[in-house]
Fold this sequence. Notes:
Blueprint: H1 2-30, H2 40-47, E1 56-62, E2 65-70, E3 77-83, E4 88-102, E5 105-111, H3 124-129, E6 133-143, E7 148-151, E8 157-161
Antiparallel strand pairs: 1-2, 2-3, 3-4, 4-5, 5-6, 6-7, 6-8
Amino acid sequence: MKKRTIVLVGAIIFIVIFGIGAAFFCKYFVNKNVWAKYTSDQLMTMADKNWTSKAMFFKGLEGNFIIIDQGTAPYPRGLVIYDLNNKKEVFSDKYSQPLDITGATVNYWEPTTQKVTAVNCPELVNWAKEGLGAEMEKHVSFILTTLTLKDLSEAHRCMATQ
C-alpha cells in the first residue's frame, strides 16, 4: 500500500511539474511570435485604424508590443508603444534617433528640460544663425517587461531643433 501511494504522489508531482513547464514554454517561446505572422500594415491597423492619416510609422515588433514613430517633422518625434494583447497604448514620449529596439528594451534619446547654453551646446551659436533652436537630450531605455522608463545615466547631448 505504501509503495502504491508513493508512486501515485510521484506521478502527481511529475504531472504538475510537467504542466508548469509546458505552460512556461508556451508563454515564452510559442506565443512570443504569435504577432510575427502579420504584416506591419496589419499590425498598425490593429493599433490604430486611422494610422495612415495620423502620420504613424511602424518601427518594430517586440513580443506583443508594436513600436510606432509618429510625426512628419524633424526629431524629436512621437514614440508610441502599443500592447497588441491588451489592445491599448501603454507608453508615449518624444524621441530622437537612434531608436534601438533590442530584446525587451527600446533605447532612444529623450528631450530634457535642461537649459541649453553655449557651454553645454557649443553648436548653439551656429544653429541660431541658421534659424534653428536646440535642446538637451538624455539617453533612456523603456523596458517592455515592466513598462518602466530608465535613465541610462550617460552624458546629455545637445541637438538642433526646428
